Amino acid sequence: MKMVNSQLVLTYFYILIYICLSSGVILFNKWVLSPKYFNFPFPITLTMIHMGFSGAVAFLLVRVFKVVQPVKMTFQIYATCVIPISAFFAASLWFGNTAYLYISVAFIQMLKALMPVATFVMAVICGTNKLKCDLFLNMVLISIGVVVSSYGEIHFNVIGTVYQVTGIFAEALRLVMTQVLLQKKGLTLNPVTSLYYIAPCSFLFLSVPWYMLEKRQMEVSQIQFNFWIFFLNANCALALNFIVFLVIGRTGAVTIRVAGILKDWILISLSTVIFPESTITTLNMIGYGIALCGVVIYNYLMVKGVEASNNQLQDKTMPEMQEGKADKRTLNNKTCSIDANGKPDASETVVDEETSLITEKNGSSV
After folding, report:
1. Cα→Cα distances 304→143, 151, 297, 307, 351, Å
2. Is residue 239 within 8 Å of 24, Cβ to Cβ?
3. Are 114 and 143 in contact (CB under 8 A)?
4. pLDDT tens profile 334-344
5. How far is CA 94 from the centre of its chain?
6. Beta carbons within 8 Å of 332's beta carbon, 6+ residues apart
7. Could you tell me the CA-to-CA distances from 105 to 98, 102, 266, 325 in Å, in that order?
8. CA–CA gap between residue 255 and residue 240 (Å, rounded)
9. Predicted confidence (pLDDT) per residue in 148-180, tens digit
10. pTM over 0.70
């Protein structure tokens, strides 16, 4: 009983750290980029700092300290899978961070309710999901909520809204491409290996718009570079990747979705206190409430669909497993079960408990 309680306390502790880190990184980025506060209005540069730092740490863990083993990555997989995913990952971070210059943190969180809509649209376009009536109506409900929330925004800014929505669809396309390109090849990446392969490539992609848009501005500006501020900011962003992995590993994607909803409400409330210029209207909250109901329904439908698929798969494999148990071969006085295809029974193989963060994020919509 004491062991169960201690494990439960540790799980809740991880969830609390996730909510604090996730909210902290968003508020930290807003504070750094905002001209009214730290005044570093260079979102591409900030994103490149994150990618460069994360890639360097991942390189040390994989190649120097050998804490994590690299996956079998061929040039073809890297060119056809990792590079496209890295491009859209870089775009989503670039557009998302740029939105902080124009709109409030609270309104950004409200717009992020569009994430299930963007993921659903991209999945249908790419052929990984079918256009179902219940999901479509759910997407309409979320969209109506976001439109109502946007209409109630006092400081509505078209440029910032376009940046944020574009970043959401870029992230959605990255998630769908991850499923199509990586998972179908049987390649799974944990947080360290994903940063090891994707962060350097994203850094290179970001260097192009940085050279065109921010390099000259940084040369003529009088902004001082505070090393410790950016070092702390990059560490927080990196730690968030790891804590998401830990929470998913201990609880599952459903729990982190629920924690994400709680985090959004806390973040919206905190942002109005830390940044007094952001104002939340009644229409804002009504629209966000409508969108949030749609998000909850979407998550329920997704979980229900996964459970139905798992049950169907289990029903199909049970007869094969029973048939396979009848065919056993004795090797060195040890018994090895053989399935219907003549392969070792999957129930006897060692399961890797290290869950891929990218795989779980694909199922996440909050």
Report:
1. 22, 33, 10, 5, 24
2. no
3. yes
4. 333 333 333 33
5. 15
6. none
7. 12, 10, 11, 58
8. 16
9. 999 999 889 999 999 999 999 999 999 999 888
10. yes
